[in-house]
Amino acid sequence: MKFVDEATITVQSGNGGPGCTSFRRERFVEKGGPDGGDGGDGGNVILRVDQGKRTLLDYRRQKLFKARNGSPGLGKQKHGKNGTDITLDLPAGTLVSDAETGDTIIDLTQVNETFTIAQGGKGGRGNKRFATATNRAPRYSQPGLPGIELKLKLELKLLADVGIVGLPNAGKSTLISRISAARPKIADYPFTTLTPTLGMVDPGFDEPFAVADIPGLIEGAHEGTGLGITFLKHVERTRILVHLIDASGIDPDKPLEPYELINNEMRKYSDTLAVKEQIIVLNKTDLTGTAEQVNHFKTAINREEIHSISAATGDGCDKLVQIIAQKLGQQPVD
Ligand SMILES: Nc1nc2c(ncn2[C@@H]2O[C@H](COP(=O)(O)OP(=O)(O)OP(=O)(O)O)[C@@H](O)[C@H]2O)c(=O)[nH]1
Ligand SMILES: [Mg+2]
User: Would you say residue 248 has pLDDT above 90?
Assistant: First the structure.
């Protein structure tokens, strides 16, 4: 699944502060020697991998990132203050390249990894440094070196944090179009969705997360029946599953049948999938009679957290987004 989040930004490291030309002034000393201090170094621009970041959203909002300039050197050999560095927090997996040449600069993968992308200019030397045996009173000092400016392209291949699984027609595509800007095709026949669609969901209080709408799974999916096997591989890489069930299709005599069918397919496909955390969601609660069907399901499954929504009307969907965001926040990034 290639879903790429992109941003182009400009970074500027700070200029070095100029060195100082100054001479010592003391009482009773007629000609004081040179005492101009060095200028401070310009601040660096540093990239850092932050495990709390999941997207490049911040870098689509702000485009220019500047580190501070170094301060000028001062008399009495005082060194100018170094410019403060600026640190840009990026999600793991961000590929950084030079936007002008297209050359890759670095692939940031390790959490807490840092990389100085633009070194600040060095501060100039004060006149004190230029004093020699033959020139004891130099009247010059160095200017600071300029910082550098770079235009960077940031690219992040998104892995879905959440996969929506379920039988065909459960309403997976309807749900993703309700909670994200993704607009997959929706129709009342099975296998409407042929390839996974990714949508970014913004819970409002935390980083956005990526949800994948997976094509419907059916019996035999693990062996390649239907569209199954191609997509189970992608589901394996998500952190949480939303297991979506059409409540109107629940048979009071065998309420758990559709739920178990999907779980069986996933279990047969891989151990990773079998143990992946699931949020169980019953959909289409706007349809008459579903309240009873939901109850049958709840009684049979004997598990605390069962969520009911109507992807069509939006009922319960905001709450579901909050729950997903909370669960994602509690899990360490692997
Ligand atoms: N009444 C009602 N209908 C819904 C709801 N959610 C989805 N539907 C309908 O159910 C049908 C299937 O919805 P989709 O979102 O295409 O289902 P899907 O799970 O993506 O199906 P596949 O892509 O084929 O696996 C469509 O006709 C939807 O309009 C709901 O909450 N209430
Ligand atoms: Mg679909």
Answer: yes
